[in-house]
């Protein structure tokens, strides 16, 4: 009888203890599994960004344009023919030098551009070179070249430059993608020169499409990324390493949001770009 009671108590103990053991195992192993998964995800993101950066940065240039110092423009109307919006500005970095002895004023716009063909054709924003005297570009390897302005469109805010060399040269270039395939939450990178901090990599996602702001007449791609003065003209690069937009503007009180001109809009405005980019 005592043996039967003993076996019965053991059985009841197993019944009550088993759920506790299972729960303990679950909580013991669960954090390890979650941490491992998180580490794999972080490593994947890190490799993703490193690969895109190493493949793209050599085709990104720093543009410095000495511009004519003009009298203050009438601010009642923007270049686009619509009322200006003080909440949005071009993402260009401007530096003014004043020589008090000779009363000479020099003003330079600094921005970004990217090479789209091996013979040195560059895409960027028109507002970087607007009223230019001269334009120079610096490559990631430190070489500096003068650049010629081949074509521009003020309203669309795009400019097409050519690196000027004394002899034939070959340059790294980026492929133009298809901005129609862009979707919200797509991962992107931006390489540019905010505040002249050259070849700065910013990562982020597409957070909106078809955004209408007063500094451009078409719907822009909104990106959640670090965008600052000097990022104008930066390539918006997708996960395949293709340019799907040109960074153009930003909210005046935020550096975490930027707007890019869709690359399909750029190609529609300058159809010859299709043939130029094929030369890469």
From TrEMBL:
Keywords linked to the UniProt accession: Hydrolase, Membrane, Protease, Transmembrane, Transmembrane helix
Protein source organism: Candidatus Sungbacteria bacterium RIFCSPLOWO2_01_FULL_47_10
Spans through the membrane: 12-32
Keyword Transmembrane helix: yes
Coiled-coil annotated spans: none
UniProt KW Hydrolase keyword: yes
Gene3D superfamilies documented for this protein: 2.40.10.120
InterPro entries per the UniProt record, alphabetical: Chloro_Bact_Ser_Proteases, Peptidase_S1_PA, Peptidase_S1C
Protein name (record): Serine protease
Example of a GO biological process term: proteolysis
GO MF, one example: serine-type endopeptidase activity
């Amino acid at each position: 009888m005592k043996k039967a009671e003993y076996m019965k108590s053991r059985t009841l103990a197993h019944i009550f203890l088993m759920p506790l053991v299972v729960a303990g195992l679950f909580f013991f192993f669960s954090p390890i599994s979650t941490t491992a998964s998180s580490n794999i995800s972080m490593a994947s993101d890190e490799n993703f960004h490193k690969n895109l950066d190493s493949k793209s940065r050599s085709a990104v240039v720093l543009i410095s344009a000495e511009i004519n110092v003009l009298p203050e423009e009438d601010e009642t109307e923007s270049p686009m023919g619509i009322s200006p919006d003080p909440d949005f500005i071009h993402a260009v970095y401007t530096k003014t030098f004043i020589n008090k002895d000779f009363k000479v004023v020099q003003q330079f716009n600094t921005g970004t551009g990217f090479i789209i063909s091996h013979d040195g054709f560059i895409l960027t924003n028109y507002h970087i070179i607007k009223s230019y005297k001269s334009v120079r570009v610096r490559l990631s390897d430190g070489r500096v070249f003068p650049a010629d302005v081949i074509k521009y469109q003020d309203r669309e805010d795009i400019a097409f430059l050519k690196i000027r060399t004394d002899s034939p040269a070959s340059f790294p270039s980026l492929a133009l993608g298809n901005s129609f395939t862009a979707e919200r939450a797509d991962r992107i990178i931006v390489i540019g020169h905010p505040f002249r901090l050259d070849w700065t990599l910013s990562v982020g996602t597409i957070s909106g499409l078809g955004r209408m702001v007063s500094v451009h007449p078409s719907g822009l791609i909104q990106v959640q990324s670090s965008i600052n003065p000097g990022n104008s003209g930066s390539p918006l690069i997708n996960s395949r390493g293709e340019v799907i937009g040109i960074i153009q503007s930003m909210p005046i009180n935020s550096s975490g949001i930027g707007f890019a001109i869709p690359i399909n809009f750029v190609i529609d405005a300058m159809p010859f770009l299709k043939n130029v980019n094929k030369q890469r």
